[in-house]
Design a protein that fits this description.
Strand order of the largest sheet of chain B: 2-1-3-4-6-5
Strand content of chain B: 15-25%
Distance between the termini of chain A: 36 Å
Oligomer: heterodimer
Number of strands of chain A: 9
Number of helices of chain B: 23
CATH architecture of the largest domain in chain A: 2-Layer Sandwich
Number of strands of chain B: 18
Helix content of chain A: 25-40%
Radius of gyration of chain B: 24 Å
CATH superfamily of the largest domain in chain B: Thiamin diphosphate (ThDP)-binding fold, Pyr/PP domains
CATH class of the largest domain in chain B: Alpha Beta
Order of helices and strands of chain A: EHEEHEEHEEHEE
């Protein structure tokens, strides 16, 4: 009954001030989890999309969708799970390097298809755009290196392309 | 025309008769413009009660109640009233003044982020920054408050916007909101499914909530119950969906409800929640099991369905509309045996009550039995009277013993806000002066809103107030009696409380005290007959408990 599941909510909202706080406030007030949250404009400048990843039991996940739909600034809520969507996250990571570990860092980046986007004599910045698990794995692999700072976007997701017929 | 004039025009277009409020500099432009209209303004004595009065008005008139206060503390004082209305789905339009637009966010005198503060207690809120938005915002606000699941909408308007010139005032005829389209008509497939399963049910029952009253569907519910022979119980907010003496009505359920009403609900095999949110107080009682019955849940708010219990058959839509469709179903329900069983339960209770009547009646001496008092009072009222119950032991006594004829029973059910009854009764009476209106409260709640006696006298509102005075906070005392083994804390009202007779005299209110059941009926009848506001004090013993109803 109380088995925890993950769900992705793609929430189309009115692009105006205060909406983010209303939506995040709803999660706080009802003790819903936010695993990650990403907000951006859509092709329509009056509409923003919030991609929220949450987890909880079946009833909670259903309540989240219903409560989101109740908010008057929410235009549409689409939900999907990871297997039927393409989900990506962007990671920027700054690491300190030296002669002895430079090769190892570059090899890991190469294998994980991460890119070096900036560099100084002692630091380099790595960018990775990948599925959330792969981003998590990359961070784990780099844990042995000295990470100076990093930032992640949170998951962006859209349902997979399916031909309607 | 300036913004403030435009607001008044909007209120006129919506047919607003009454605004409850309290002024301040930030809302002065509005209160200046409203002088030029026929809209009645009521100067309340504290802002919270403006919302309660508007709530009482809304529940009797069927239209959104309007309250209007100033910025900062005026707005924050309103919050409890807004939350109370939100919990019971009462439509309100709450207008708040705000500091000038360019000062917002700089913590100037009497600035409060009221739209932020009320976010979880309103159906929607607006902060108007452009005077030209006023007509659209008001049109939307009234629409939102009074459709779908009703509720309060707050409109915050900076003082400079109220003073700005509006280029062209045109009140919109229609609302166009892409994000708001409440479902009205119930899904026919689901309705057919209910009909099919209902025809096979052996022990069907309806549990009706406040949503039935909000939809004005009492008559349809009664017709549905009678046509198919389905017994009805109600939640606290649903009291009044049927007359108490209706043969199919079995009273209020819940942890403070009638034992046989709970038993009826628990033993049913087909339970229809109609306009009820299946709240904790209704279903948290021994023996309720949602899994051993077919559960139909009909509500206008899809988020309520499945929130507390999972429904076998959910139907979203307007309760009146769905009941109409259900009434038209061509089925028969075989419930005669079940009805006989329930009648037995009710009879057994009546007999038990009868046999214990002497024991109940008196230990008291110089006090009134609260249950008896509520019953005698409600029988003495006009058929269509409005009874406003406050919160505390008095609420439970009122719910359990009130004899509903064709009137209304109002109370703060969801939030349980003490002090609701007096301002709400005032609003109810102003909504329909032809109806008799009484407020029944304890001495604790009375002291939370007794400042409104001044408003009542100023506006010459004929409400009768009944104070059950036991000189303690009875509900808390009862809790401490059972849970903390009589270690009482923070409940004593015997010291410092005013002499209600002298207080009434100070306000110029007719006063009467009763301390025994002798002549109680006559005293109450005579008291109700007197014109103008009156206060009747009934002495209750401090150790009375809300005993099994």
């Amino acid at each position: 009954m109380t088995e925890k599941k993950k769900k992705i909510y793609s929430v189309l909202v009115e692009n105006k001030s205060g909406v983010l706080s209303k939506v995040s406030g709803l999660f706080a007030r009802r003790s819903f989890n936010i695993d990650s949250l990403a907000v951006g404009e859509t092709d329509d400048p009056t509409v923003s999309v919030m991609t929220i990843v949450s987890s909880g039991d079946h009833r909670t996940l259903e309540q989240i969708e219903k409560q989101l739909n109740k908010k008057l600034d929410v235009i549409k809520v689409k939900t999907f799970t990871e297997p039927n969507s393409v989900s990506k996250e962007l990671l920027l990571m700054k690491v300190r390097y030296n002669k002895s570990n430079r090769r190892e860092i570059l090899d890991t980046c190469d294998m994980m298809k991460a890119e070096i986007v900036d560099m100084s004599k002692s630091n380099m910045m790595i960018q990775l755009c990948a599925a959330p698990e792969k981003v998590a794995l990359f961070i784990k692999l780099m844990a042995s290196v000295s990470i100076v700072e990093m930032a992640r976007t949170g998951t962006l997701a859209l349902p997979k392309c399916v031909d309607q017929d | 025309m300036i913004g403030a004039d435009a607001i008044v025009k909007c209120l006129e277009a919506e047919g607003v008769e009454m605004v409850y409020g309290y002024p301040g500099v930030a809302i002065c432009p509005f209160y200046n413009s409203i002088l030029n209209t026929d809209i009645r303004t009521v100067l309340i004595r504290t802002e919270q009660n403006a919302a309660h009065a508007a709530s009482g008005y809304a529940r009797i008139s069927g239209k959104p109640g309007v309250c209007c206060v100033t910025s900062g503390p005026g707005a924050t004082n309103l919050i409890t009233g807004i939350a109370t209305a939100f919990a019971d789905s009462i439509p309100l339009i709450c207008i708040t003044g705000q500091v000038d637009t360019q000062l917002i966010g700089s913590d100037v005198f009497q600035e409060a982020d009221i739209t932020g503060a009320v976010e979880s207690f309103v159906k929607y809120s607006y902060l108007i920054r452009d005077v030209n938005d006023i007509p659209r915002v008001f049109k939307e606000a009234f629409h939102i408050a009074s459709t779908g699941r009703k509720g309060p909408v707050l409109i915050d308007i900076p003082a400079d916007v109220q003073k700005d010139t509006i280029s062209k005032f045109k009140y919109p005829e229609e609302v166009s909101m892409r994000t708001y389209k409440p479902t009205v008509k119930g899904n026919m497939v689901q309705i057919k499914k209910v009909a099919k399963q209902l025809s096979g049910a052996k022990r069907p029952i309806i549990c009706a909530g406040g949503g039935v009253l909000l939809a004005g569907a009492q008559e349809k519910l009664q017709a549905f119950s009678e046509k198919f022979g389905i017994p009805v119980v109600s939640t606290m907010m649903g009291i009044g969906v049927m007359p108490t003496d209706h043969p199919f009505y079995y009273g209020m359920v819940g942890n403070n409800g009638r034992a046989y009403a709970n038993r009826a609900m628990n033993e049913s095999d087909f339970l229809m929640f109609i306009g009820a949110r299946v709240a904790d107080r209704a279903v948290s009682q021994n023996g309720f099991d949602a899994d051993n019955k077919t559960l139909v849940h009909i509500d206008v708010d899809p988020a309520e369905i499945g929130k507390n219990v999972g429904a076998t058959i959910p139907i979203v839509g307007d309760v009146a509309c769905i009941l109409e469709d259900l009434l038209n179903q061509d089925i028969t329900v075989e419930s005669k045996k079940w009805q006989d069983t329930l009648k037995e339960y009710r009879k057994a209770f009546a007999e038990y009550k009868e046999s214990h009547a002497d024991a109940l009646v008196k230990k008291s001496g110089d006090a009134v039995d609260p249950c008896e008092f509520v019953e005698v009072l409600s029988r003495a009222l006009d058929d269509n009277a409005v009874y406003v119950a406050d919160v505390g032991q008095n609420q439970i006594w009122s719910c359990g013993n009130y004899v509903m004829k064709k009137g209304r029973f109002l109370t703060s059910g969801g939030m349980g806000t003490m002090g609701y009854s007096i301002p709400a009764a005032m609003g109810a009476k102003m909504a329909d002066p032809s109806r008799q209106v009484v407020a029944v409260c304890g001495d604790g709640a009375f002291q939370m809103s007794m400042m409104e006696l001044a408003t009542i006298m100023q506006e010459k509102v004929d409400v009768k107030i009944f104070v059950m005075n036991n000189e303690v906070l009875g509900m808390v005392r009862e809790h401490q009696h059972f849970v903390y083994k009589d270690k009482f804390s923070m409940i004593d009202l015997s010291q410092g409380s005013p002499d209600l007779g002298k207080l009434s005299e100070a306000y110029g209110i007719h006063y009467k005290k009763i301390t025994s059941e002798k002549n109680m009926k006559k005293e109450i009848e005579a008291f109700l007959k007197k014109k103008g506001c009156g206060l009747m004090e009934c002495r209750i013993l401090p150790d009375e408990v809300v005993r099994g109803m």
